[in-house]
Amino acid sequence: MEQSLSPEPEGVTNATNDSVRGFLENLTGPSRGTIAWLVGDQAIVCIGDDRILRVVPDTTTADKTGARADLSWSTDTYEMKAQSNADIWVNGRKVGTAHLMQGDMLEFGEDGPMSRFRLCNQAFPTSWSVEDILSDAVAYARTSRRPIRSRLSHALFESARRIMLETTLIFRATVIVVLMALTLFVAWQYRSDILIARTMQQEALRLEVIASTLAETREEALTSTELATLREQLELQLVTSADRLSVLERRLGASGRVINGSIASVAFLQGAYGLRQKESGKFLRHVLGPDGMPLQTPFGKPLVDPDGTGKPIEFQFTGTGFLLKNGGHLVTNRHVALPWTIGDRPESFDQSGLEPEMLKLVAFLPGLAVPVDADLLAFSNTADVALLSLEQSATHGRGLILAQEMPDIGDEVFLLGFSTGLRALLAQAGREFLMALEEKGETDFWTVATRLSKEDRIAPLASRGIIAQITKKAVVYDAETTVGGSGGPAMDSNGHVIAVNAAILPEFGGANIGVPVLEVHRLLETIKPN
Predict the structure, then answer these.
(1) Which of 204, 260, 473, 497 is deepest in the core (most CB within 10 A)?
(2) What SUPFAM superfamilies does the record tag this protein with (predicted)?
(3) What stretch of H or E contains 105?
(4) What is 14-126's CATH number?
């Protein structure tokens, strides 16, 4: 009978259906993927001009065009005999006759397909197992006479096609589910890798930001060796500064008295801020070892973590500020009151998922034995000035007057401030004070300042210069100062504040820039309603 694309012979009566003994599974050529059923005791395999394989019964009326082989049933299988003008291969060997065995690979001529012989015993397969499909592929690759590359690619392609189309629905559904699960797993793994890489990058950036900020933050706690060295280095400078101040007072008379009268209103600011993780809301803290000491990374940087058990990591700073008359407000620079706003720190902290927060800010006033807590009251978005509030009791009898008009170029200007911060104060304190600190080991950032305050050793340094330039945004002068003097008052000869000392310009011979007093007036206007 003719070959059929359906797994079970069509149009065959039950009596004839019982005679189905086997089939040819076509693996190549135009007949690929079809089945030719072997029914009855005698059959002829034909290959037409269209290269399609047909199996017809061996009767006088059958169309035997393109006959290639005769099949005859013998006990339990078919015997195959090649037609006189046909070439037949069985398992890669050219034969004239063959006793067919289950799974034999048959090739009917150069233009015929490769087919696999199977006995079915009246059991009609509706699907193929993966084992059968792979077995067919291996048999094809082993017996085909095509070039090795061609036969391997064909075997792989056909195996994939048949697994997708000719296996059971359950198997295909299982494969689809497994592939979907694998795809989801790969996607999840990829996303996890991205998140891990992003977390590692953020952690590296966070450590870099912390390390660079710690490097920029002036750590003023001193060791005993540093105290001794500092004392030797600054003693001569202090004597010189004292002499200069004495000469200044003698030369200026009333102006010298103004400076002395202003000293009590100039505050030494000392503070520290920490970093809070935005996601968890926790401060970054030191990670402690079994001995209770802070751990460090292999690169010598402090090891910090939101879940650390140590103290919050501190970024310490110092600066200068001055009290206003009849207000209780203290003026300083914005970069002193908000030290994390310097340079690219805000962007770096934000990218690291960190939020700066002030941990402690105190003001030491000359003549007061204890520091006073300072709170941010207001700051300017356009100028480097800020206002702090102090307890009213600490400001009684103190305060400077703000000038109402700007000075002229060439006028004298007097600066008061805590240049070099704790180091200058320690140098001014004298040999005995330094020796006492060395003996007790009290070199902590906070302890040193408290000791200085208790012994009434908090006093700003004064310097004198000439105003070189005046603009709406800056007053430039050559009065000497250095880091730590930021936020101090720049006063005219009447003792009125004309600017807030803000920056040093080394490229201009050490000239200083002050924020014009007009910006302070503007900032005060913003808090009047409150």
Answers:
(1) 497
(2) Trypsin-like serine proteases
(3) strand 105-108
(4) 2.60.200.20
- Among 96, 12, 93, 90, smallest CA distance to 55 is for 12
Q: Which residues of 238-276 are buried (b: 16+ CB within 10 A; e: fewer)?
A: beebeeebeebbeebeebbebbeebbbbbbbbbbbbbbb
The residue assigned the tokens 């006028």 is 411
pLDDT digits (tens, 9 = 90+) for 430-471: 778 888 887 787 778 888 889 999 999 999 988 888 999 998
Which is nearest to 388 in space by CA: 447, 330, 343, 309?
330
Q: For 397-432, how does the pLDDT look when each residue is reduced to its tens digit (9 = 90+)? A: 899 999 999 899 999 999 999 987 888 888 887 778
Cβ atoms of 213 and 274 closer than 8 Å: no
Token match 């291996």: residue? 138
How does pLDDT run across 145-176, given as a tens digit for each residue?
A: 678 787 788 778 877 877 777 777 787 788 88
CATH of domain 217-527: 2.40.10.120
Range scoring the smallest mean pLDDT among 55-69, 153-167, 208-222, 344-358: 208-222
The amino acid present at 35, given as its one-letter code, is I
Phi, psi of 482 (to 5 degrees): -155, -170
Quick one: which of 391, 379, 285 has its CA closest to 331?
A: 379
pLDDT per position as a tens digit, 489-498: 999 988 999 9
The type of residue at 71 is L
> Six-digit token pair at 286?
């030191």
Strand 20-26 relative to strand 114-119, pairing: antiparallel
Tell me which of 74-83, 149-158, 364-373 is least confident. Answer: 149-158
Residues 392 and 398 sit within 8 Å (Cβ to Cβ): no
Backbone dihedral angles phi then psi of residue 85, each to the nearest 5 degrees = -105, 15
The residues near 340 (Cβ < 8 Å, ≥ 6 apart) are: 213, 273, 315, 346, 349, 356
Residues 6+ apart with CB under 8 A from 200: none
d(CA 217, CA 336): 12
